[in-house]
Amino acid sequence: MDLLSKAQKKFSVFKDDQIVAAVALANRVHRHQYLYGASSNKIPFLNHCIEIGMLLAEMGGNATLIAAGILHDTTRYHDLSHEQLVASFGIHVAHLVEEVAKLSYMCKLIRHYNQPSSTYNNELCTMLMAMVDVRAVIIKLADRLDKMNRVEFLLPMERRSKFIKQTLDVIAPLAGRLGLDVWKGRLQDLCFKNLEREEYDELVSKFSETTLESAVSELMQQLNAMGLAYRSLSSRRKSLYGIHNKMKR
């Protein structure tokens, strides 16, 4: 439970009684479960649940959303009824857990029938957003982002490429549709890193934060030398995947 202490230090919402209770239940349900992966890379499923909660807290989620994120897979792995969740956490958390379960099933079907067509994938995004509570989509995005953070350790090669491709074609655009551009960029960059590692590493070296800061500093010096006034200057790096696509055009 060290990760819970870390989460509580970083996000005060993790001290909420509902979230503490959600972590306790997830700990009981997932006690002997690990994210899929080699034995040397076993990651306790509870850690994954708390990481999802931290991602939701990072984007300003409330206690209901975070508790549902932590409990997102409890009904799949445990003989836990909807009524029991309602009794322990209220109708709103139970509803979101149920919606995430529905969305997980839909994502499984999409992985099986995924087509290499932007029109098809746009239609999938629209369908997913229309069929479930949008908060369940946000939880599922956090679930996928945490898995993508360690995808090279979790999945065998033959499953990994399909998982990454679905993330790039369907899940990342879905984050963009919801206005979660930071998550969209992170998902795209993680896909890019795993699909085209050499190109990714090359862009990392070219567009490091130090390089951007140096460029801003040089521009400020030139403006000062020319006597041109400015209020402030800052830099914001596009996603490396976005830069990569622009360079290919």
TrEMBL record:
Residues 45-148 form the HD domain. PROSITE patterns: HD. It comes from the Eukaryota. GO terms for cellular component: chloroplast. This is (P)ppGpp synthetase. It comes from Corchorus olitorius.
